[in-house]
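User: structure tokens for VTT domain-containing protein, please.
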Amino acid sequence: MELLGFLVDFILHVDKYLETFVATYGAWVYALLFLIIFVETGVVVMPFLPGDSLLFVVGAMCGVGLMDYSLTVPLLLAAAILGNQSNYTIGRYFGPKVFHWEDSRYFNRKAFNQAHAFYEKYGGITIVAARFMPFLRTFAPFVAGVAEMTRSKFTFYDVLGGALWVGGIVTAGYFFGSVPWVKANLDKIIWAMILIPGLIVLWGAWKGRGKAAAKLQAGG
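Assistant: Done. Predicted tokens:
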């Protein structure tokens, strides 16, 4: 429970934690950020790390001179691409065995099913769209590996999605993070960046389930 409380506090006040880390450890913040982005995108059991809000806050810190924008963007882009490549490789290795795994503290079966349904409907573009959706972001490359998408095709979507995600959100933070209204309402913005994509995913899953049930009834 203490770890969960810390994670929630870190996600909602990531700006304060990063500012403290920069003041204490300086350039080591780049290594920390690389690790967070790589783990969130590259380890299928770590879908709860604060990707979107973290990138926005990092951009804001670049905007006020606490971090180097020209170093941060390519570094975090590399972390996002390599993380997805790692996740894809894990999916290719385990393949069809995944469909028999049960939900556990290390594997979120529901999130996997949602990502798989999204992938089946939209194919490769899922890799790009999922970058902006918590939980799906972690499972989409894994699902692509399970579905045996070719490495070259996956890499194309991986790089494109990573560039839009990292470049777009860090740049938004760079230009808007220091605006007084944004600074005053940063906690609300973080909540919005978590909840809105999550609601979109839930709505899509509910809609997909409704269509599947209708097909089943029509077939019966």
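User: Anything notable?

Assistant: Residues 90 and 142 are 7 Å apart (CA to CA).
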